[in-house]
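ok so i was messing around last nite and threw this chain in just to see what happens. nothing serious, just curious
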Amino acid sequence: MSDTPAAPPATSGPAGPRAVLADDERLMRDQLRTRLAEVWPQLQIVAEARNGLEAVQMVAEHRPDVVFLDIRMPGLTGVEAARQIAQMELAPEELLPEIVFITAYDQYAVEAFEQGVADYVLKPADAARLQLTTGRIRQRLASRGTPQELPAPPLQQLLHQLSSRLNPGGAPSHLQWIQASVGSSIQMIPVEEILFFISDEKYTRVQTAQIEALIRKPIKELVDELDPQLFWQIHRSTLVNVKAIAGVSRDFRGRQIVAVKGHREQLEVSRSYGGLFKGM
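result:
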């Protein structure tokens, strides 16, 4: 029997939230689709993926409101797929989809997910747990764009924790030094002294209070190598040292702007990462 993902059924009536479902086991996809129809009938499954690469492609194509990712998939794991999804370029009016991980390994998952930046479903899909998960997702979708009292932790911080738990003892240590070009010389810059990183198409600027340097490593690689509790991603091309944030304000267009201690430059926060400073 072919494992080609089933085409989503035709829907009628008002359009509800849209979702992509990714799991390399067809029976698990079938079961989750059935359970979701029971607890969240308004949800439209617009595409199904059999691996992490397909999941990223389908999210880029369909721009869903929610994506269900099996943590262990071939090609890319669910965590790796989520990292790529978080790096997608969005239109000004777009937001990243809500992430729900599908896992059979609650011993490493539950604590991390309780932060609230993403959610989880245990295999096999239990109706009571799925009801709780979908309720929280619906609440988050409904509250998008409204002020919140507490900021959610950065998504990359959760993904780093999950990677560590998936590969205990094998997770790479965080970068402590950056080797960068300063004029015609090469310097070793302690990571804790760096105020922020900003990338363009070719280089990434490394800014400290005293010097400006260049490296060729892109932001999407630095996100995986830096301590996520020290560096927050606030834009597709920008990482900022949390300890260097002097404050956050809004400009005349309503965009969030980060002021940096020890530097005059102001850093724009993209809509995708606006949740870091909710309530501003």
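not much to say yet. Helices lie at 26-39, 52-62, 78-86, 106-113, 127-142, 155-166, 219-225.
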